[in-house]
Design a protein that fits this description.
The complex is a heterodimer of chains A (290) and B (259).
Chain A lengths: L1 H32 L7 H19 L3 H23 L4 H21 L18 H19 L2 H11 L1 H6 L4 H27 L9 H14 L5 H16 L7 H15 L7 H15 L4
Chain B lengths: L1 E12 L2 E12 L3 E5 L6 H8 L7 E6 L2 E2 L5 H7 L1 E3 L12 H8 L8 H6 L2 H20 L15 H14 L4 E5 L7 H16 L3 E5 L3 H7 L2 E6 L2 E6 L1 H6 L1 H8 L3 H5 L2
Parallel strand pairs in B: 3-8, 3-9, 6-7, 7-8
Antiparallel strand pairs in B: 1-2, 1-4, 4-5, 9-10
Helix pairs in contact in B: 3-5, 3-6, 5-6
Classes of the chains: A mainly alpha (290), B alpha/beta (259).
Chain lengths: 290, 259
Amino acid sequence: MEAFADFWATYSTLIFTVGIHALLALSLWLTLSCGLLSLANAAFMGIGAYTAALLTLHLHWPFPMVLAAGGLAPAAVALLIGAPTLRLSGVYLAMATLAFGEVTRILVLNLEITGGPEGLNGIPLLTTWWHIVLILAAAGYALARLRRSRMGRAFEAIREDEVAARMMGIDVEGHKLAAFTLGAVLAGLAGALNAHSTFFISPREYGFENAVDILTMTILGGISSLIGPVLGATILTLLPELLRFLHAYRLAVNGLILIGVVLFLPTGLWDSRRLRQFVGDWRNRREGKP
Amino acid sequence: MSMLSIRGIGKHFGGLQVLQDVNIEVPGGAIFALIGPNGAGKTTVFNLVTGLLKPSSGSISFLGQDLAGVAAHRITRLGIARTFQNIRLFPDMTLLQNVMVGRHHLTNYGGFAALFATPSFREAERRSRERALELLSWVKLDHKAESTADNLSYGEQRKLEFARALATEPKLLLLDEPVAGMNSSEKAVLMEEIRNIRDRGYGVFLIEHDMRFVMNLCDRVAVLNFGRIIAEGAPDEIRSSPEVIEAYLGRGDEAEVLP
């Protein structure tokens, strides 16, 4: 028991981070599932984090309401900026959402209520492990249901061929806006959880670097199923810690591993189709079939 | 009464006039073909009818409803479905999923029902799956329902696109070069399928290059050349029309040299 207490004391922060990153990767998975290459999710996370932290610090709202607001505030922003930007596709959308992220960061950096470059201090540590587990499980469940519904099929169809999807009677603009907004809800929740588990937040944490990290986690894990993003988030969060023994070479080796994965497994670590094929081959070989 | 009325349609892209004063009346319950040389503007007509492009002038109405300003996905829901000249499937989805996408607006349940897999959700999904399988069996692809669309041969891809278009429960089916790249036995099979479709009460409006295919299959034919309709009538009239022969074969030399 004592060993566990020691372990928890040392690693609880890291475990919290894994859960929050997994939630972020799922938020981007949702956006990508509709074919939208968005870099706005880090900013949505920031909006959720600041909204939640301010509500706790100034208005002393109960934590569940704070979490809900942390999810809804970025969703409102997503609805507002989605209508004009989602007409763009591919790298152009990436650039527009990147610009949105920078505007958000600079705004937070200069506003008085957000504490400017110093950020917000003294946020009560209200996030517990079961908050993260509960929200992550609920998000995973909702996304799994979504995939098996007409909405999930519509997202996939839009990603594969937008014109054909439109000709199938699918409201392409409406679905894109929904994917973008629901992704913002998950990112905002991750931000709210993050703010209440780290005591302190600043604009630095929600900038370009973070946006790329989220994208890397999702793509590294693979977007063919929900397991991929969670796996990618876990690996990318733990890898730097596991490589700690390499000291100064840590980040370089970290980068080399990522390059290797992208080169040799371009569809990500967890590709359900490849795995099915692999399992099928193995069975055939065991049963002596060609 | 005609099902689809195209009246005085013009379309230009910048300075390029693609269609000029095109009038087409597509009847219901019949097979109507639009033919013409490459670059005549046939696919543009389809893109205008399905709402992917907006006409520069003129009007299009379907079953008496003006389509001006109606979004493309709403036009599909009114009952116009199409296939594409260069097949556009959802390659990574299974055949069944491809066809079920076509039933998107006919599968009615809300987010709540989907989230908790309520009986109404399961019932709607089951109906949708059953109808999709039925359509796949029409085109004899039901045995491959669970494989992905990118595994299909060219002819099978065309048939899947056909089934997917029918899944939207259209009243009028637009086929853009349905037999392109098919061999003659495949063509004969598809010809039979299209006749079956018409006999089930659908209207069929198709674009085609293959003259024999058109002349054997269609009830009425219109000919488009350089963005204008130059002839319209029964296949026999079209075959003997001097304008059509000229559009396809060119004019005799003597006529040009001698006054």
